[in-house]
Amino acid sequence: MARELLGMRLVHRMRDTLRIGRIVETEAYQGPEDLAAHSSRGRTARTEVMFGPPGHAYVYLIYGVWNCLNVVTAAEGVPHAVLLRAIEPVTGITGRACGPGLLCQAMAIDRSLNGADLCAGAIWIERPASVAAVRIGRSPRIGVDYAGSWARRPWRFFDRDSPHVSRAPRRPATRERRAAGSGR
User: Is 66 among the domain residues?
Assistant: First the structure.
């Protein structure tokens, strides 16, 4: 599902205003076994939405500052989700939207949308009338080093041609780059 969301549009209707962004970066989380997933610690008040039906928003706060938006993707009771990491502004968005916190800020998404049905209501994901082919890149997820081997899973997906991706993927070190970096 994380790959399939690339190129789709995230839409937020606020009164008479539409904010629309093209999804260009995602990360997959396969809880509860995935130690990087919030659901790895079990069912809690915070993660309850992740255990609900697919197609709903899981919105949470990180660092006491940033809201982040996930799409619940698996059957009810299976807490899999996809974090939306970056969008390319289409309509009604000013400022940067690369990075999950900036995405939510640009789209005016906060925890009041936690549990929202992403197929109906004020916020939704839609397929544009014409979808250009996306050259998909992949890399390990960002900021989950604490998750051991789960951190190295290549479950971050991005549009290789978009300048709105949050961060370039890490390149594995090569002997040549290590030697060049050490002045040898």
Answer: yes
Can you give the residue range of the structural domain that contains 161? 9-181
Count of the separate structural domains present in the chain: 1
Residue by residue, pLDDT tens for the chain (184 residues) are 999 999 999 999 998 899 999 999 999 999 899 999 999 988 999 999 999 999 999 999 988 889 999 999 999 999 999 999 999 999 999 889 999 999 999 999 999 999 999 998 999 999 998 877 899 999 999 999 999 999 999 999 999 999 999 975 555 554 444 444 444 4
Q: What is the CATH number of the domain that holds 129?
A: 3.10.300.10
Task: Give CA–CA dist 71/118, Å, rounded.
Answer: 8
| DSSP states of 24-88 | EEEEEEETTT-TTSGGGG---TTTGGGGS-SSBEEEEEETTTEEEEEEE-SSTT--EEEEEEEEE
Rounded distance between C-alpha atoms, residue 58 and residue 106, angstroms: 17
pTM score: 0.88
Closest to 81 measured CA to CA, from 99, 62, 68? 68
Q: Length of the chain, please?
A: 184
Geometric angle at alpha carbon 100, from 125 and 121, rounded to 5°: 30
